[in-house]
Design goal:
Strands 1, 2, 10, 11, 12, 13, 19 and 20 form an eight-stranded mixed beta sheet that branches. The protein has helices spanning 17-28, 68-76, 103-108, 114-126, 140-147, 151-165, 175-187, 198-210, 253-260, 269-273, 338-352, 411-428, 433-442, and strands spanning 5-13, 33-37, 48-51, 54-57, 63-64, 82-83, 89-92, 95-98, 190-193, 214-217, 221-227, 230-236, 241-249, 278-287, 297-300, 305-309, 322-329, 360-372, 390-391, 394-399. Residues 436-443 have low confidence and may be disordered. The protein has 443 residues and is an alpha+beta fold. It has 13 helices and 20 strands. Helices cover 33% and strands 26% of the residues. The protein has two domains: 3-46 and 198-275 and 377-442, FAD/NAD(P)-binding domain (3-Layer(bba) Sandwich), CATH 3.50.50; 48-67 and 77-195 and 278-372, Polyamine Oxidase, Chain A, domain 2 (Alpha-Beta Complex), CATH 3.90.660. Helix 1 (17-28) runs parallel beside helix 8 and helix 2 packs across helix 12. The site of flavin-adenine dinucleotide (FAD) has 36 residues, from helix 1, strand 2, helix 9, strand 14 and strand 18.
Length: 443
């Protein structure tokens, strides 16, 4: 008969990228770590589904390099193959133009006047020196209104901002997010990962398992067990108790609240209630072949829509086939009908890649997928306004995810907070003597 009670040094709840990174660091430090994932497969939002040989991420996914995720992958020895997108077009009044993403494209661009080009050129020059953190309490819209004079330049930057911050609510999202990401993307390439993000998930799983972590998928954690301000472990849905010296919760914010709150004690509820997730409408299509069109990466200037044909740059489709991602950034203050959003995205495909409907093999529409657990808002001070890794009133419980901690956006926030949570666990928990020695050496 299976034991009703087991023990491990550290439990990690959630087997997405965040949980896998935390488990990898802890296992490499010699700590006995057990990760529980409720789904049958690891990966969470970074999982890739294969259909007819096409590798579909769960909505558009690009790895922005030069941030915490890159440094974590390097530290954990994760390598992968990728391609980087090249020519991007902007769509304006039904016509396509080259997106000026550097001095050369700026000269070639035909939809900006000379004065527009001068202002954009000046902005490119000062951008690397801007202190993004100092803009945390300004919204993207306020920053654009105060810092950009020419309407065409403002329109271009606002369109890019929609795509970079994953939201059409530029009046609410902190300018820190946009400026930080703009700076990074001018200095570091974007990676489209061969095989989709599952490649990263599989590599992280291997690192953790090789170092001795136990990764249990198909295992739902029902609650965090705690008493007198200390966590004792977790209770699984099948009733088993797993005792641990520390627990890292690497789920969505709302799931974290459910796990910790027990009716009488709600340490997280207040912090999480104020978080607003970024939701997207994503239409992903597999095509037998790419229609004859140059416009394979398109940023719409007039509506918050973006399209990219990732299969041109990375191995995600069978020979000759094409995998195209489109997404619409939603506005928190102006709800839309998901069917209209889908039509908007089909319309973008019709405009950029005419004939795609006749070549369609498979399509996935994700009308309201949660892309980021918490949008960094100007009103809460940007990145620094997200909850920290500690849970008030519970000493040995830690949080990690793309809604936690003061560093980075998207998977950069996941990676930074996962590493930070692992470090705190190692620093603050009394493990066996050997584990402490290895952990101390690692810090
Ligand atoms: C459409 C879309 C586009 C995106 N684009 C990008 C991009 O371009 N660039 C980028 O950097 N990031 C992007 N992201 C974000 C990125 O996918 C995430 O930041 C990253 O995958 C890290 O996720 P996570 O591990 O924190 O959370 P998740 O992947 O959500 O993992 C949490 C896991 O916890 C599990 N879980 C929850 N509750 C329990 C429980 N009670 N017991 C056990 N397990 C539980 C869930 O099943 C899940 O697997 C995108 C996300 C989406 C959805």
């Amino acid at each position: 008969m299976e034991a009703r009670f087991t023990r491990t040094d550290v439990v990690v709840v959630g087997g997405g990228m965040t949980g896998l990174i935390a488990a990898g660091y802890l296992a490499r430090a010699g700590v006995a770590v057990t990760l529980f994932e409720k789904a049958s497969n690891l990966g969470g939002r970074a999982a890739t589904r294969t259909s007819d040989g096409y590798r579909f991420n769960r909505g558009i996914h690009a790895l922005y390099t030069g941030g915490a995720a890159s440094s974590v992958f390097q530290e954990l020895g994760i390598s992968y193959r990728y391609g980087s997108p090249k020519e991007t077009f902007v769509l304006r009044q039904g016509r396509f133009h080259i997106l000026p993403s550097g001095p050369l494209e700026l000269l070639r661009s035909d939809f900006l006047s000379t004065l527009d080009k001068l202002e954009l050129g000046r902005l490119f020059a000062v951008l690397p020196r801007l202190d993004a953190r100092a803009l945390a309490r300004l919204s993207v819209q306020e920053w654009l209104q105060s810092g950009v004079r020419r309407p065409a330049v403002r329109q271009l930057l606002a369109a890019l901002a929609h795509t970079f911050v994953y939201s059409a609510s530029l009046d609410l999202v902190s300018a820190e997010v946009f400026v930080d990401k703009l700076q990074r993307s001018l200095a570091h390439p974007v990676h489209y990962v061969d095989g989709g993000w599952q490649t990263l998930v599989d590599a992280l799983r291997q690192v953790a398992e090789r170092a001795g972590a136990r990764l249990a998928s198909g295992t739902h954690v029902e609650a965090i067990e705690h008493q007198a301000g200390r966590v004792r472990g977790v209770r699984l849905r099948d009733g088993r108790l797993v005792e641990a010296s520390a627990v890292i919760v690497a789920t969505s914010p709302r799931e974290a609240v459910k796990l910790v709150d027990d009716g009488s004690f709600s340490p997280l509820r207040e912090a999480v209630d104020s978080l607003v997730p970024a939701r997207l409408a994503c239409l992903d299509v597999a095509l037998r072949q790419l229609p004859a069109s140059r416009y394979t990466i398109v940023q719409d200037l007039e509506r918050p829509r973006f399209l990219t044909t990732q299969s041109i740059y990375s191995r995600v489709a069978p020979e000759g086939g094409a995998l195209v991602y489109t997404f619409k950034q939603l506005d928190l203050s102006r709800p839309t009908d998901p069917r209209d959003d889908e039509r908007d995205l089909e319309d973008l495909l019709d405009t950029a890649l005419p004939g795609w409907r006749d070549l369609l093999i498979r399509r996935f529409y994700l009308p309201r997928i949660e892309a980021v657990g918490a949008l960094p808002m100007a009103s809460s001070g940007g990145f620094a306004g997200r909850p920290g890794p500690r849970v008030p009133g519970l000493d040995n419980l830690y949080l990690a995810g793309d809604w936690v901690g003061p560093e980075g956006f998207l998977v950069d926030a996941s990676a930074a907070s996962a590493r930070q949570a692992a470090r705190l666990v190692l620093r603050e928990t009394a493990f066996s003597r050997e584990a402490v020695a290895t952990a101390t050496a690692m810090l």
